Amino acid sequence: MLKQKLQQKLLQKLSPQQIQMIKLLEIPTMQLEQRIKRELEENPVLEEGREEPDSDIGPDEDPAADDKDRDNEEFSLEDYIEDDDLPSYKTASRNYSKDDKREEIPFSTGSTFHEFLEAQLGLRKLDENQHALAAYLIGNLDEDGYLRRELESIVDDLAFSLNITTTEEELLELLRIIQDFDPVGVGARDLRECLLLQIRTKDQELPEIALATKIIRHHFDEFTKKHYEKIKNKLGISDEDLKGAIDEILKLNPRPGSSFSDPLNKDSIAIVPDFILENNDGEFQISLNSRNTPELRLSKTYSEMLHSYASGKEKQTQEQKEAITFVKQKLDSAKWFIDAIRQRQNTLMITMNAIIEYQHDYFIEGDETLLKPMILKDIADRTGLDISTISRVANSKYIQTHFGIFPLKYFFSEGLQTESGEEVSSREIKKILFECIEKEEKRKPLTDDKLASILQEKGYHIARRTVAKYREQLNIPVARMRKEL
């Protein structure tokens, strides 16, 4: 049996405008420029430029006369002075503002890693079917130059997707051809094969090269696990012989594809800072990087159109009413977008000023040890903003300082207490760990237990598992993998 009843619920829902505001707050400066351009394309009421005060023309003033005066002012006696008579400082322009827009013209030429391999494939004498199979193999290589798939799977793919019948033996023969290409080591199916492809191009008559080849071919597992004693006992060699062979192995490139570099192919991405911090004798001046962000205003033409249509309500046709509705919607949307951009800038500045104030000592010198423990809640309490808002501001944003460019997330860290009760940043602990590992004896590297003991001697009470966590965050391997001869 169906029943109808009324029920009141208090729900918290975000409006479409609030959702758009959140998205605007999250995106960095580079994406903001694209977002503004998209809004300019979609909304005809929105224009680039500053809001100009209205200039009313009096009844006795003639605009045409003003135009004539301006035309006359465009030409003067100075136009006929020879350029050679002018001082150089009047014609040279070197006073660029920090907000001037500087754009790099991207290269339209260049070749990728796979195109480079396909170009070498064209120099080999292969029939049409072999060329198609070899090109398919090249297409399956990853950016490091490895073939991560089994040849059996590639045979099945060729049969089902391209209706090409082949065998593993034929593909292996073509793979051997690809493995002769530059860079050396490309086309390998694992690290061991990659190193063997590279070591075989060296002079095998040299004892260290011959020993390195033997280690890679027959004792690769022991080498990767750094079980050097087992290798010495099996091969009956000295420490010096093993060290010479390992030095040769370490010269090889485990990622041959990453070594490919085309000077015409510019794929590096420059970081554009969202904030610019200037230090004037201890006084900080923070500004938003608005170099590529255009200023916005409402279209005067559409505003006047709406005013003229609205003033004659009795004479409005159905088409005019629809036009008024359309223009009003676009006008409201443009006003909201301009306000949202201003609110975004205001929120960013409030948050960044709070971070600088909190980490004042660090920003003076840039010394990492001066970083205070700081979490999102600390800045939220100072600014009166929500923690989620601070998180969105810190996400994907960068600041340019006099000692480098840093992501905002860099300044947030956990805190630990020393024996004296002083609270220190986890970054200071990581720096001490890094220095200890840098100075350790490589024949007997420090274990996590030993590192924890060193930190406790320095007054930092920290558990071994926490040392292991910080070490992993620093991308430092365990002691056994850091061992050297």
Radius of gyration, CA atoms, in whole angstroms: 34 Å
Strand portion: 5-15%
Q: Main β-sheet: number of strands, strand sense, barrel status?
A: 4 strands, mixed
Element order: H for helix, E for strand = HHEHHHHHHHHHHHEEEHHHHHEEEEHHH
How many helical stretches? 21
Low-confidence stretches: 55-86, 89-94, 104-108, 263-267
Average residue pLDDT: 79
Helix content, binned percent = 40-55%
- Give the helix/strand class: alpha+beta
Per DSSP E runs of 2 or more residues, the count of β-strands stands at: 8
Distance between the termini: 83 Å
Overall morphology: extended
Structural commentary:
With 485 residues, the chain is an alpha+beta fold. Among the domains are: 113-259, no CATH class; 275-311 and 327-411, no CATH class; 416-482, Homeodomain-like (Arc Repressor Mutant, subunit A, Orthogonal Bundle), CATH 1.10.10. 49% of the residues lie in helices and 7% in strands. It has 21 helices and 8 strands. The chain is extended and about 100 Å long. 16% of the residues are buried.
